[in-house]
Amino acid sequence: MARILIVEDEKAIRKVLRDILLNENKKYHIDEAENGQQAIDMAGDNFYDLLLCDIKMPGIDGVEVLKYYREYSPDTQVVMISGHGDMDTAIECIKTGAYDYLSKPPDLNRLLNTVRNALDRKNLLTENKILKKKVSKQYQMVGQSEALNSVRDMIDKIAPTDARVLITGANGTGKELVARQIHEKSNRNSGPFVEVNCAAIPSELIESELFGHKKGAFTSAVKDRKGKFELADGGTLFLDEIGDMSLSAQAKVLRALQENKITPVGGDKDITVDVRVIAATNKNLQDEISKGNFREDLYHRLSVIIVKMPKLSERVDDIPLLVEHFSAKIAEEQGLPMKTFAPDTISYLQQLPWTGNIRELRNVVERLMILGSSTITLEEAKKYI
Ligand SMILES: Nc1ncnc2c1ncn2[C@@H]1O[C@H](COP(=O)(O)OP(=O)(O)OP(=O)(O)O)[C@@H](O)[C@H]1O
């Protein structure tokens, strides 16, 4: 249940506020602080969802309390209570991060509405965090090999910038995972991550897919539709399999990257977009350039930073950790009993060629989890792989 701290030097006002809140919901947990110092001290041992905080108090005032909570308990919502004469300060407080302010004496309806909305906002923040944790767990990068650690170092350096990134590497080496990690660790992480598989979209549709279209632009365009560039506004656009994009689509992507502007198919107005582009390919783009299949100018626009994903055969040290990770994940996802892999089974896995890389390893682990006994033996591995 919601935990609320009332920070107010006048005892009578504290009592009125407490009574009103408990009348609204008996389950609210309400604490009181009679000055700013107490409110700050109480933050150490407690977490509050909401602070109702007087602005004018002797000693440490409400503004200081607000600043303290913004820094040390940023999810706590703070509603300021302002008396005559400190209206300007109340407005300033909103700029510092207060959720809202109430004037003294507080109007009952406004007080209750503000409290409800502030608590809703706090719950939303918590839910978002839980969701984010789940998502980042889903895209966890497992492995401690030197090759993977150097990719990790690069991600940490690249993520906070807006530099375009080209991720190269064979199928199943984890290129998409890297793109997601860069997004998650960037300051665009509250914006969308939009993925486009350029190889999967027929060339005649790719323009509309990327830039959107206006109603009537072509026969099946029955209404306006936003493209992936616009959907990724404020976030990251991941252009997977960029080496498979047609030359005409490449020309349009080049323009979007040069000008940060797009024009929907059938539209006559440009739309400005704020998108970080990360591209990936399993092709050697230099070869594609010499064959005339890929534009050199687009290559240079995309490849400000190049991340080269190692093959699984170059990081066999990671196989034990990957097997453990996938088997736990598969057991959970499919409700299968947990199984272990015998040491000689793991050594055997480390010697296989793994042309499909980590995706192939995951499939093999899944197959063995389904078909193998509780400790998966070398014989079983040889039989089923
Ligand atoms: N280091 C890693 N730790 C855990 N899982 C990984 C790792 N790298 C890749 N995977 C998993 O392997 C699978 C393939 O990875 P991903 O799709 O990122 O590869 P890709 O290089 O983009 O493949 P493709 O080129 O075929 O699109 C995914 O299920 C991904 O979650």
Automatic annotation (TrEMBL):
The keyword DNA-binding applies. GO terms for molecular function: ATP binding; DNA binding. Residues 3-119 form the Response regulatory domain. The lineage of its organism: Bacteria, Pseudomonadati, Bacteroidota, Flavobacteriia, Flavobacteriales. Pfam families: AAA_lid_14, Response_reg, Sigma54_activat. CDD domains: AAA. Keywords: ATP-binding, DNA-binding, Nucleotide-binding, Phosphoprotein. This is DNA-binding NtrC family response regulator. InterPro entries: AAA+_ATPase (IPR003593), AAA_lid_NorR (IPR058031), CheY-like_superfamily (IPR011006), P-loop_NTPase (IPR027417), Sig_transdc_resp-reg_receiver (IPR001789), Sigma_54_int (IPR002078), Sigma_54_int_dom_ATP-bd_2 (IPR025943). It comes from Schleiferia thermophila. GO terms for biological process: phosphorelay signal transduction system; regulation of DNA-templated transcription. Residues 141-370 form the Sigma-54 factor interaction domain. The modification 4-aspartylphosphate is found at residue 54.
